[in-house]
Amino acid sequence: MLQSSFTRDKLEAGCDEAGRGCLAGPVFAAAVILEKNYTHPFLRDSKKLSAHQRDQLFEDIQKEAIEYSIQQVSPAEIDEINILNASFLAMHRALDALKKEPELILVDGNRFKPYKKIPFECIIKGDDKFLSIAAASILAKVSRDRYMIQMDAQYPGYGWDSNMGYPTKAHRMGIQELGPSAIHRMSFRLLPENEQLELFNQK
Length: 203
Hints:
Layout: E1 12-18, E2 27-33, H1 51-64, E3 67-73, H2 75-81, H3 83-96, E4 104-108, E5 120-123, H4 131-154, H5 160-163, H6 169-178, H7 193-201
Parallel strand pairs: 1-4, 4-5
Antiparallel strand pairs: 1-2, 2-3
Helix pairs in contact: 1-4, 2-3
């Protein structure tokens, strides 16, 4: 059973990101503030849910959260500042967009860049421990998946409608045949080393 809050009295925002390990597309992040006694029978880590369940929860969270925000950092920004800093930046942007400023930030994972002077807690596997982090993980993942499905229509051949930009065999075959798209992360190893060298030698 996931916990509804970390403290009794502080206004808490759960934060999580989606798409950190992808070869293409932005990294998305969400921040969510829930009621202290919030419950939901199915809300948990987005990776443990079906796409249909995530879609339903996406609607429920938007209706039931006190506050929520979904933001992104572009592939060009990822290449400039690296994926770790881009993940922090996406979460900061999500926090910036909240109308209410939280008194405590709950972050999935073991690292976070301080936001303003607000206290924060890094919680490993937090998206399967606290409802607000789980809610953020769902908003970020569903938003990113929908974005990548749209991008699949614009840049066909990489299989993004199924792999969402992650480094699958089909995705890498697409890179090999078509070269990188405008939304690939050029600072990432898009192909195994020998093929990567060959790809860039052709450009």
